[in-house]
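Side project, low priority. Logging it here so it doesn't get lost.
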Amino acid sequence: MKKTFTKAVGMLLTATLLAGCGAATEAPKATTAAQQSESKAGDSGADTGSSAEAEITLTLSHQMAESHSIHTTAQKFAQLVNEKSGGTMAVDVYASATLGTETENLQALTNGTLDMAVIAAEFYANYVDEAGILCLPYMYDSYDDCYEKLNSEAGDRIKTMILEKTNVRPLDYYVLAFRQIFTVDREIKTVDDMAGLIIRIPDSTTYKTTFSQLGAAPTAVAWGETYTALDTGVVSAVENIPESIMSASMQEVCKYVNVTNHLIAPTTISISNQVYDKLTPEQQKILEEAAAEACQFGKNMTAENSDANFASLEKAGLTVVETDVDSMKNAIKYEEYTCTQSDAGKEILSLLGK
């Protein structure tokens, strides 16, 4: 009999289940593949990798549009899993928050009601303070520097802490681009221009501390609601990587891209440990190897696409502002972040050379 660990089907994840979920609330319930009994993954809008022939099919959720490099990397991961398993394992990829927001996906992974998801480190920081260290501003000098630090003892220790506290296993880290600040009505030439800026941030204590230190008014808004928030004046700025801004069409409502290079927010390919423990050691190894290769592929793609993404923003009409980065750096005080205040946090910060 065909085995499947797929836990969520996008068409049946209702608005009621998705509403009102916060970092400390109960995970949304998702419809399991067992309840759908042999239904085809293609009927529910997933990108699949020969799942009809596979003995095991895993569901992987992420937030970005199918044009985004995260989706390309997720597809690469699915391809590698299928190839390494000789077609006995498949990964169905659901894009564009079809299966819920990133916060909801993390809750579902914790409860074992979702198999896999792309989860950014800042969301883990809501459960494991020390994970926020990976998202501290001006932590990385380059993409290679970020990749090396994530794959060091410090990165491994944070993986272990995440597993122990959330029952979610990060398989590997994926290096995204340096984040910039996109504004509707002002240029950010120095840190002084950040004063009172209402800026959208992800639901993360680390980001809140960062932009409070910079003098802004950070406001948590779900990614899928950010375009409207910018368009209606609920917020007047957003920080993210250029590719994400373009894929969400936010260049239509922003006038300036301020080159702050304020942080790299690494993300992860993660699996519910309840699902992982049901796999054989060989299948676990396949997932780990595929994740490592896919994340290396993603890091290379991030570096290669950096200049092209800025060119696309300029072509779309945004003004590029060269921000005084030193004035931004000087406003940051690592000791004020809760993630650095525990003994473990201090040790991890030291391992990262800060």
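Brief comment: The CA atoms of residues 133 and 214 lie 17 Å apart.
Revisit when time allows.
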